[in-house]
Amino acid sequence: MNLSLLARFSATFTACLMMPASVLAAIDLIPKEVVIDDQETAVQIINNGDRPEYVSISLSRLVNPGVPLADEKVEPVGESDQPALYAFPFKISLAPGQSKTITLKPLRAVETETVYRLDVKPVLKVSSGEKASATGTVLVSLAFSGLVRQLPKRTREGLSMTCDATGARLTATGNVRHTVKGAKVDGHLLDDFNVYPGVPLPLKGRVVSVPGQTACSEQAGAGRS
What we know:
By secondary structure, the chain is mainly β. The protein has three helices and 20 strands. Strand 15 (184-185) and strand 16 form a beta hairpin.
């Protein structure tokens, strides 16, 4: 595992351990996956706990959707010169049992499916006695991350597969994700997965088969330049 990733995970895990379990479970987001077209869409954030909660909200574009979580790269929407989607408000306070609305507002149309992480971070204010082992007066833990999909006005779906020396490469030929089902590598059935426009995915193995595509074998891949 990458050392920087391990350090980030350890820091987050340690912060979670310093927080009561009720804090981690209190905040909920409904729905947790949202599809956006050209209209504003609202999601609800709910405090299911018995104490007031303070929450920060941020939206980041996934640069390489479909890759393993550890390999994901994100770009905060606030750092984009021409963002296509905006989320507000940035901070919310919730009384016990209270729910409030987060609004997702499209700013411009997209040509291909664009995927975002809607990060919801509960912020716990602690007393001086509780922060003896902490470095500040506020502890922040990433509770969860909702998924937001912004779709183009007209959608089309497709997939191609090319063989190479390591196995195969899958490419989405449409403007939205293609869900691959029943793929096999060296005889092992893979879980369903998505291939997104602009983010080809490699499948490494001696024999790769995907329904609807010509299978790739080690011999076939070796014969291609």
